[in-house]
Protein 1
Amino acid sequence: MIFDTHAHYEDAAFDSDREELLRRLPAAGIGAVMDVASSAETSRSAVRLAETVPYMAASVGAHPDSVGELSEQDMQEFAAIARSHPKVRAVGEIGLDYHWGRENADLQRRWFRRQLRLARELGLPVIIHSRDASQETFDILREEKAEENGGVIHCYSGSAELAAEYVRRGFCLGIGGVVTFKNAKTIKEVVRRIPLTSLVLETDCPYMAPVPHRGERNSSLNLPLVIQAIADLTGKDPGEIEETTWNNARRLYRIH
Ligand code: NI
């Protein structure tokens, strides 16, 4: 079975057919989905959705794009949600994103560290978003001892060398649609070099649809295309990739 370790099914892009789509996933081989929060609001809606879908788990946390609205009260609420809902299995997605500039870098760093501490308090793994901030993300994770609870570097986009450092510390790397893009040389090298036991599958849906659906609304139904791309790069059997990444994801989110 396939484990989608990073999806946003609470997103408005699924408003027209969410229930119907989620009903179809198990028959298509999707055995589990982590619905990832990205703001205070989606930390509430992701867990609400997960409670209606037997194979779905959820996270709490705020993406670097939404730290401007965060307060200490939100941290208390995240903690309360996580403690009262067994389906909450991670803190994320949290991290650093300098793609649109560094004007609020201090604010991003502050809330990244604060949420890493929250994850340690709660004993939960972290889901890391890092864009144009590879080394700084790594340094903060090390300083905050994030490897003690583990986690996943979602949509991994750093070098193969940094990937090896993450894996050495026990982190997983999230592999999604980007691996099917023709010009994505670095992630292809990462997939060839990193052991399959440290990779997990993800969609980031509704975003990041793999080729030949690039630009369209993504869903977990597209993950076989990602598996095939990994198979082409590693020479491994798609069945082995599916099974190994399934086990990796269950270990990551401690779902047994
Ligand atoms: Ni995401």
Protein 2
Amino acid sequence: MPLPLPRHNQPPRMLRLKDGLKDGLGRSITYLRVSVTEQCNLACVYCKPRTGALERAEPPAMSRNEVVQAVQVFTSLGIRKVRLTGGEPLMRRDLETIVAGISPEVEGRVHLTTNGVHLARRARGLRDAGLAGVNVSLDAAERGAFERLTRKDGFSRVMAGIEAARSAGLKTKLNAVVLRGWNEDQILPLARLARAEGIQVRFIEFMPYQGNGWGKDQFMPAEEILRIVQEGLGIPLEEEPVVGLEEGPARIFRLPGGEGKVGVISTLSADFCDRCNRVRLTSRGELKACLFGNRPVDLLEPLRNHATHEDLARLIRQALTEKLDCHPMRRGQVPDLADGMWQVGG
Ligand code: SAM
């Protein structure tokens, strides 16, 4: 059952009829990523610094009602798809309730990004709550490499989670961040897994932010990843036409002889900011117009202080006027982020 918005921040009917949310550069913003927690049960080498931030106590996250209320404001303005992320979203026991509250707002287009460790026992419940699909982060197809990258065990549980998500009928994809010197030897095993299982694996370029140990030596561009797949499998890759922004910024290639696909997300080597359709909401209720480079705008305090729908809509529209035309890495800068990816949600 969707949770009703309190009367003071219900959208006026006319606003719901308006066509969409545009940023300052005229890009249509239709996709919202919501981080529901900063907690994570893995400690991936490219995401969480080993010390400091790991020990920092998490500030109180938005309650499930606040998540749903915030999402309702966004959907009333034109957001059509929501992805729940984190931290690790399955660390929240009330995730199913959050999904059930959001799903009707986006006609079922609610998705989840997870490390999959707790997915096996929750996949069916999440589907029943209205979840449409899940992206599982899996940077290695072999246990040893998985443990080196995540600094934890859990490989078998993740594999069981992927299986459970697929048998529950959730649209399931895999995401792998590639770091030279860490898991480039996993590119081919992951591509073979995609082919054998008829699933989509998307390789993501390693992105820098302060404290995550990024260096040019570890960076592997999408073109090189594709070359490794093509030469290793000994087959031509057939690129799928881009159908729309809803499918995200990945370039997708069919693996001949089955349903399997590989994709690449070239955040750095060929950025796609000109096609950006997304904004992010952190678990602290801060709106981030861009992953890197924008001041966050607090929506939680106004929400808690009974701001009207118009006030919240104004804050959101104002934040979107500041959305950047491209990210700082294009100018060769490593973003000076106070927040890590586990706080912003990827
Ligand atoms: N815990 C969940 C998971 O593992 O998918 C959700 C949060 S995680 C921060 C979201 C995504 O961000 C994951 O696919 C992760 O691999 C990606 N990510 C984190 N740090 C990254 C980095 N430095 N470069 C590229 N992707 C990164």
Protein 3
Amino acid sequence: MYKITKYSYLFSTFLLILATTSCKEAKKVETENTTETAEQMSAQPISKSEFGTLPNGTVVDKYTLTNANGIAIDVISYGGRITAIRMPDKNGKVENITLGFDKLKDYLADNPYFGALIGRYGNRIANAQFSIGENTYKLGANNGTNNLHGGPEGFDRAVWKVTPKADGDKSVLVLEYYSKDGEMGYPGNLATVVTYTLDNDNQFEINYEAETDKATVINLTQHAYFNLSGDFSKPITDHKVKIDADSFLPVDENLIPTGEIRNVSGTPFDFTQSKTVSKEIDADNKQIALGGGYDHCWVLNGVTGNLRTSAIAMHAASGRKLEVLTTEPGIQFYTGNFLDGTLPNPAGGYYGKRSGFCLETQHYPDSPNQPKFPSTKLEPGERYKTTTIFKFSIE
Ligand code: GLA
């Protein structure tokens, strides 16, 4: 359950505007905003260029956020995807540390959600269905019999309305998407606003907000793959990772949580102390075998709703460090086990197995079918609001 706040009216207004505005009018508003932000942009370190054109003629834009410490983050309007994060290593060498493509066609083809905003539901919903009260909702199955990451045309494939904003010395992008009642089978018109903010403390903050006009479920996340070495020909197994979680969610053969909340102690899933990923990623362990490595949700310590440091990844040779702070109760640590050397890396070659890892902050997979898990239900009049920060540094 999410809180009702005084800001709710903003979303109601947003809902109303989107619902009543024709495509032509929407285009006009966008053009006006673009002109307006051109002036703001001169004071803001945000540049905009054309990334590509969809088969239906829609232009996909690329925005680049920069900060005072040499970090540059590229975001495209298609899927709100982060296509590159360039950052210096301990010797000042700037490299891209997130897996992506340089051509729109590669994002349009089958790909494992590189850099994408995920909605309406991050990770799996068993048998692609759930019920709210008397109503059962059938979703698109795109992962065996499961619904994965919102279905075949999830938020990762939506074109978001992107608005650069001025906020002191911060670089801000506001991304908006209006998902219609029944889209991918989910109930309710859902007005979603995601805000990306890059500051001079090297924090990339992601704020997710949404409102619905009918009871629904929601679990938004970001699916960036990191390889802090900056060399995607190398697996991420030499990184050290710490996850502030005393337990994790074991899965079945369809990668659906069994419902058990298992203590990590004495298992390969114990990341309470920083540990090299390679240490137990191929351990003789049933859960490791089911995931083909790590592909599980950790149950984070601390209070849901409180922003706290939940995971830290460190790459010693480059000195690059990533800290993940979140208000969410869980984090999916996925070690890129399904990457198979078929997707092109713009820097040369192809993305191989385990060439990137994800730390997807979220509620637990399959929560709509697991009453013991924290609820992912969103009711009309409530506002969904979560925050995650990727904080970059050099040690
Ligand atoms: C998530 C899932 C993985 C996989 C990737 C995308 O992280 O947990 O099993 O589906 O997305 O390939």
Protein 4
Amino acid sequence: MTTVGFIGLGNMGGPMAGNLVAAGLDVTGHDVAEGACAAARAKGLAIADSATAAAADREVVITMLPDGAALLEVYRSIVADVRANTILMDCSTVDIASARQAHDMAAERNLPSVDAPVSGGIAGAEAGTLTFMVGSDPPACEAVRPLLDIMGRTIVHCGGPGCGQAVKICNNMILGVSMIGVCEALVLAEKLEIDPARVFDVVSTSSGSCWSMNDYCPLPGVGPESPADHDYVPGFAAALMSKDLGLSQRAAASVDVATPMGAKAAAVYETMVASGRGHLDFSAVIRHVRALVRE
Ligand code: NAD
């Protein structure tokens, strides 16, 4: 399995595709943004003018796109033209319905397909240490495993088509809630005139420890380097977090499950995006939390 088409070469797709090239695979990419194409070209990818051209005559086609609408738009343009037995693997985070529709489009041509959303952020994409949550029949998961092993460190087959997206939505609901919790604690400590570095030292080694604090602290100069140290340039944009929390709420409604903290986090990020901060990293929600305290 050495020929790959890679569509969507942004913050995540660019480094993921770069790792495949570095591992010796023949990767042709496509993105609608010229800047993303230029950066990918510098990593050794061949760049095609269209998604259809990038996907033609490839053993595997990987998509890493913003949302379900973009995914289905790309599938409408590529599925009819890929060669027989091409494996279609979508690594974007999309709603479960779009993921299943993408699987159905592949099935109409008897193409194996996989939903394999990721966790680990840009740092994980660059280091090849992502976690992949795979939804597919077991043989399709095994067929793409060598590629996943290059781009990631943990590969979990979560179940049939759409199950990877279901697990991803649950993970990101926890992340959205935990980031707001960490921000509230740091702002509270700030108001209580505690050195935030001491809060980090304690919480990161205590029962309050979590990824949002330990690995992605939302305050500059505290903890390991994170988007907070770069004026909240993403990273993982607040607009994407808002999208994911919206997906979690739609999934919860579809099975009559109440997720009050998830709903609250969705509302907080929706307000952040509406206030024009959707382009900032999601950890910049600390500014929003601070504004609430001052009200
Ligand atoms: P991004 O916006 O940086 O990249 C998406 C890319 O897709 C862009 O370069 C865009 O130009 C391209 N694109 C959009 N429509 C297209 C089309 N029709 N054809 C070709 N290219 C198209 O976003 P990202 O941060 O790389 O995230 C990609 C996906 O991964 C999202 O679904 C996101 O939720 C998920 N994700 C992101 C992170 C993160 O930390 N950034 C972590 C886990 C999962």
